[in-house]
């Protein structure tokens, strides 16, 4: 069973890595519309998909905040996309404030972007290069994953 799951993740990962992200617009926690084009980074864009009910998501956000502090002035933009549904979306703003998320928090209340990218787990983090190609995909979070995330940012931010 584990082997089947790993094979499935491998093929999903290949499919996502071959994807190019299309411009999208979502409301932020202040009810302002923000587009991907407005928020994307000069070199890379890191998008973190999360929900308020996902414990690994809540554990990953402080680590992503630390990574943001290290890379946001190096051409790497960060976008947080909350995917809570209508019943729990009201928690997204207060939760993002309590977690001190320092980068834009967008609300994907009907899972439009999540569905377009065929995401199936939370948290999911993707890295997109300057050409709009998804170059790295990561599901879940355990302590230590932040080292892999930083290694991937270093790897892809140095690509020409």
TrEMBL record:
Domain of life: Bacteria
CDD domains per the UniProt record, alphabetical: TlpA_like_family
Coiled coil feature spans: none
Residue ranges occupied by any Thioredoxin domain in the UniProt entry: 15-158
GO molecular function: antioxidant activity; oxidoreductase activity
Pfam families, alphabetized: AhpC-TSA
UniProt cross-references to InterPro entries, sorted A to Z: AhpC/TSA, Thioredoxin-like_sf, Thioredoxin_domain, Thioredoxin_ResA/DsbE_sf
Stored PANTHER family: THIOL:DISULFIDE INTERCHANGE PROTEIN DSBE, THIOREDOXIN-LIKE PROTEIN HI_1115
Full protein name: TlpA family protein disulfide reductase
Annotated source species: Flavobacterium nackdongense
């Amino acid at each position: 069973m584990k082997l089947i799951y790993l094979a499935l993740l491998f093929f999903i990962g290949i499919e996502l890595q071959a994807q190019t992200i299309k411009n999208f617009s979502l409301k932020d926690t202040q009810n302002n519309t923000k587009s991907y084009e407005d928020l994307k980074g000069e070199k890379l864009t890191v998008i973190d998909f999360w929900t308020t009910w996902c414990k690994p998501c809540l554990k990953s956000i402080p680590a992503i905040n630390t990574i943001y502090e290290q890379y946001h002035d190096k051409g790497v933009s960060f976008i947080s996309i909350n995917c809570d549904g209508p019943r729990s979306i009201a928690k997204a703003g207060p939760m993002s404030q309590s977690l001190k998320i320092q980068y834009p928090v967008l609300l994907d209340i009907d899972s439009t972007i999540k569905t377009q990218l065929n995401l199936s787990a939370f948290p999911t983090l993707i890295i997109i290069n300057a050409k709009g190609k998804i170059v790295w995909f990561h599901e879940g979070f355990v302590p230590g994953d932040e080292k892999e995330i930083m290694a991937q940012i270093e790897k892809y931010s140095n690509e020409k």
